[in-house]
Design a protein that fits this description.
The chain is mostly beta strands and about 375 residues long. It contains 4 helices and 14 strands. It has a 7-stranded antiparallel β-sheet with strand order 2-3-8-9-10-11-14, with no helix packed on it. A 3-stranded mixed β-sheet has the order 1-7-4, with no helix packed on it. It has a two-stranded antiparallel sheet with strand order 5-6.
């Protein structure tokens, strides 16, 4: 909430078309319901207002019932404290309200309570935001989840059972007192269910499915009482809730998702094998590093060829064609995995020979 100068104001007024021309004249417009229309709403915080907070508690147990099969059970609790509510200091509640009644539109003979504001207090606003000592909301629930993992099968599932209740009987408008304490109503527990599974077929094909079932949202039915229904009503309209909390819900939402995926491993070679060992060690090659080194090309340097010269020679082979590489005793670019393993040892030998300490950096692929 904000207490800045910017604002969005609404002024609801009644209109009676006295001459039937479908055009609103000034004498046909009713009195204002907001005397502060066009200026910042007179709403301010209590000097002792404090931040709302929550208390959360979770208690869980996890156990392996069978090999590869685990079960988890937890209890969840959450409660809100210091919630902020708004009171209008310009009104004397309940003195400024008169209890009236209107027939229930559903029938049954039960009247609906309607609190009518005193005409002299309509539009007076001096609101104060403060912490409520009684308004609160809390949740209690139990979660049960299971998991099973086999060689080619994975199953995950769970059930969540709980409900959220609220008590908001500390209000500015007494018309909001109807069903203000949900703990007095028969609110049922809400159940949510989820299950997911994956199975690996031959050729690395993964098939699976996800299923979840969620409870429908609660449906609230209200009755708008206006002056055509209650002529002595001071307010423009009063909304009265008809159904009790927890009595009407929308249908459950069930979702099923199926999928099949083929896993393809892509390998991208950055450098042809056979010359990488010398290429990685080239940064450390220099005069005086003459060694008998068997490089990835399969050739052995003689005493007359320095390691530096071998580095240059094998780097030239790097950009040569396959025929030129075979003529020089190097393998073709499209080599096998076994050859990569053989050249890895040669790379380490060339690295030590060039003063790299056996470090070969990244692999070829």
């Amino acid at each position: 909430m904000t207490y800045g100068p910017s604002l969005v104001a609404v002024d609801q007024r009644t209109w009676t078309d006295l001459n039937g021309d479908d055009i609103g004249q000034e004498n046909e417009i009713g009195p204002t319901s907001n005397t502060n229309f066009g200026v910042r709403r007179n709403q301010n915080p209590d000097p002792n207002i404090s931040r709302p907070y929550q208390v959360v508690a979770d208690l869980g147990i996890q156990h392996q019932l069978f090999p590869r099969f685990g079960l988890t059970v937890s209890y969840d609790y959450r409660r809100f404290y210091n919630t902020i509510w708004t009171t209008n200091l310009a009104l004397d509640i309940p003195v400024d309200y008169t209890l009236l009644s209107v027939p229930d539109p559903r029938g049954g003979g039960q009247p609906l309570p309607v609190y009518n504001l005193a005409p002299g207090k309509l539009g007076l606003i001096n609101e104060l935001d403060a912490n409520s000592s009684t308004n609160t909301t809390w949740y209690k629930g139990v979660d049960v989840s299971l998991n099973y993992r086999a060689q080619n099968l994975t199953l995950l599932g769970g059930v969540s059972i709980g409900r959220t209740l609220s008590s908001t009987c500390q209000v500015e408008d007494p018309n909001s007192l109807r069903f203000c304490d949900q703990s007095s109503s028969d609110v049922p527990l809400r159940t949510q269910f989820k299950l997911a599974g994956t199975y690996v077929l031959p050729y690395d094909i993964h098939i699976g499915a996800n299923f979840q079932s969620q409870p429908g949202a609660e449906q609230s039915t209200t009755y708008a009482v206006v002056r055509s229904i209650l002529p002595s009503l001071t307010q423009t309209s009063v909304n009265v809730r008809l159904n009790e909390p927890g009595s009407t819900y929308l249908d459950r939402v069930n979702q099923l998702e199926r999928h099949a995926v083929e896993v393809v491993q892509a390998v991208r070679c950055r450098r042809p094998p056979g010359v990488v060992a010398v290429q990685h060690a080239e940064c450390q090659c220099g005069p005086g590093a003459d060694q008998h080194v068997r490089t990835g090309t399969g050739k052995r340097h003689d005493d007359s060829e320095s390691t530096t010269a071998a580095c240059r020679r094998d780097n030239q082979i790097l950009d040569a064609s396959d025929e030129q590489r075979r003529a020089a005793g190097c393998p073709a670019r499209n080599t096998t995995t076994n050859y990569l393993k053989r050249t890895l040892a040669a790379r380490r030998i060339a690295s030590r020979a060039c003063g790299c300490g056996g470090r070969v950096g990244r692999t070829d692929c």
